[in-house]
């Protein structure tokens, strides 16, 4: 019997599945998970992978998304999430947490954490949220060095290295396309262009870049929220919903807390809460009980 403490699928198999998904012709849907329990739910519902957002991790820590988190914090949360799911996990590695050598170390640490892939961006450090104004990008040559260092450190060839460019909103879409092409030549397996606005821009990028492409469908940003089927028809390979689950949870938590504060009781909120039985189902309580029984089901001999 497989123990319940971790998902049984090895990290190498998850990475191979991510690679296969990129080549499948079907768009891979990766909702964001702000904790391992949400990742469990993402798998149960039937999505293709799990995304771990740097903005979400920062928000959980009560920090803005401006590059304040560390590799240790990001890899630790990534490992916790990857542990519970059989799905590939793609994680936000910001600008690589330093110089090109730091980006290289980031890849080795994330591989050891069981992650299937990560993305590096071409912003100046400290970075800003990709859908805010006032961003700055490094030169193409500097980002290429960052990516080459990351690629050189990869031990599992199936580990996906994604290059994100924020240049579209700063230098224009043609410059972003040129950067994407250079990043692909440097070894990036997947290209993530932040803050494209219209279907025409998404289509233009697909026409000009041969590498697999990722679309970011974050709410309240600069991009229209296209259905996955539309993105697939354009030719995109991956779509992420980075902050959706956190926004849903925080909205519900705030509404509930305000009612408890006003009413002095949570009794009117029970129909909006996950029941204990459903939580236990997600946590696989029965499997833990079976595992415990099998492990400790023995009899001591007289001489023991």
TrEMBL record:
Xref: InterPro entries: ICL/PEPM, Isocitrate_lyase_ph_CS, PrpB, Pyrv/PenolPyrv_kinase-like_dom, Pyrv_kinase-like_dom_sf
Assigned keywords, A-Z: Lyase, Magnesium, Metal-binding
Coiled coil (UniProt feature): none
Catalysed conversion reaction: (2S,3R)-3-hydroxybutane-1,2,3-tricarboxylate = pyruvate + succinate
Top-level taxon of origin: Bacteria
Catalytic EC class: lyase
Entries under NCBIfam families matching the protein: prpB
Family assignment from sequence similarity: Belongs to the isocitrate lyase/PEP mutase superfamily. Methylisocitrate lyase family.
Protein name: Methylisocitrate lyase
Natural source organism: Nocardia rhamnosiphila
Gene assigned in the entry: prpB
